[in-house]
Write a structure and sequence with these properties.
The chain is built from six helices and twelve strands. The protein is α+β, with helices and mostly antiparallel strands. Strand 7 and strand 8 form a beta hairpin. It is globular, with a radius of gyration of 21 Å.
Length: about 350
């Protein structure tokens, strides 16, 4: 099956991806040009995320020395949205949604992305994600908290200063809702969590595992859609960032730094991606079915400029990929842990 077209099933979402490995017998030939190096300053006086600078509405950033979190000046969700339904026909249904949106700057440095931060600084980022998640979840109308990062203009990032976002939703969004349903069904049928069973099988096979420590594993999922998609999965059955021990936070920071460093080293550029943590909902229920995990979705395929687009068949039928997850994992494993900017 590995060399012929086949479908791979994603047990987390109940969806499938079409894999066509015969179309990529030699996937590393073709365009391999590099983009000019990015030379960002440590501080940019025109950046609205740098310390001491002015943001929208005249708000001035503090002279922060570590992470910095604030309410998004252009939030997609608002806490005071009307609560009355606006639909007068079942086929034209809409309901209001309230929420809060925060921004988290990784550090005062305008030029340091996640893989370039010291490990302690990455731990501080995780601590801030956790603090903000807990704070948002305490609002009685927030039932899901989504931590995510869009890195690079290619992924729609509007400011190069390394930062992430945290949105607190009144309703559980589509992707976590799918995962909730599938994980609940699995634990009900098997008495074990879906991702713990999946992780055990991946460790047994070792084909798609990138690296692991005592607390987390990074791998290319069997059902990956994006060329170099990865998942980071907790070894312990924890549902929230706030449940991690200090040792687990350190282990997560190490894994995040190694994944993002490998990404940058792949084409020797600040590698674009969208990344996000899937925690359990904050809906007042217990969630023994849930295992904390993060998804990385990077668009690049063969070089710094060749992107994987979701067009045509993928928009109208189903996701499709040419290089197999096993090939992608092998490629990422072969890269060094030392960031390309720091090599002699």
């Amino acid at each position: 099956m590995s060399d012929s077209p086949h479908r791979r099933f994603n047990p987390l979402t109940g969806e499938s991806v079409l894999v066509s490995p015969h179309r990529a017998k030699r996937p590393w030939l073709g365009q391999v040009e590099k983009t000019p190096p990015e030379n960002l300053p440590q501080y940019d006086p025109s950046c609205y995320l740098c310390p001491r600078n002015e943001r929208a509405g005249g708000v001035r950033n503090p002279d922060y020395e570590s992470t910095f979190a604030f309410d998004n000046d252009f939030a997609a969700l608002l806490p005071d949205s009307p609560t009355d339904a606006r639909s007068d026909h079942p086929l034209l249904a809409s309901v209001p949604e309230r929420g809060l949106c925060r921004v988290v700057c990784f550090s005062p440095r305008h030029d340091l992305t996640l893989p370039e931060l010291e490990l302690a600084a990455v731990e501080k980022v995780i601590a801030t994600w956790t603090e903000q998640t807990v704070d948002l979840s305490r609002q009685d109308f927030i039932h899901y908290v989504q931590v995510f990062e869009n890195k690079g203009a290619m992924m729609g990032c509007s400011n190069p200063h390394p930062h992430s976002q945290i949105w607190g939703n009144e309703f559980i969004p589509n992707e976590p809702a799918k995962e909730l349903e599938r994980q609940r069904a699995y634990i009900h049928q098997n008495g074990r969590t879906l991702l713990s069973d999946y992780l055990a099988e991946e460790h047994k096979r070792q084909e798609r595992v990138l690296f692991t420590n005592d607390y987390f594993t990074a791998l290319v999922p069997y059902w990956a859609v994006w060329p170099f998609e990865t998942m980071v999965i907790a070894h312990r059955n924890v549902a929230y960032l706030s449940e991690l021990t200090p040792a687990e936070v350190n282990g997560l920071a190490e894994i995040l730094k190694r994944v993002t460093t490998r990404y940058d080293n792949l084409f020797e550029i600040p590698f674009p991606y969208s990344m996000g943590f899937h925690q359990a909902p904050f809906d007042g229920q217990s969630h023994p079915e849930w295992t904390l995990h993060a998804h990385f979705y990077p668009p690049l395929l063969r070089s710094a400029t060749i992107r994987k687009f979701m067009v045509g068949y993928e928009m109208l039928a189903m996701p499709q990929r040419d290089i197999t997850p096993e090939t992608a994992a092998e490629r990422l494993r072969s890269l060094p842990d030392i960031h390309y900017k720091h090599r002699v």
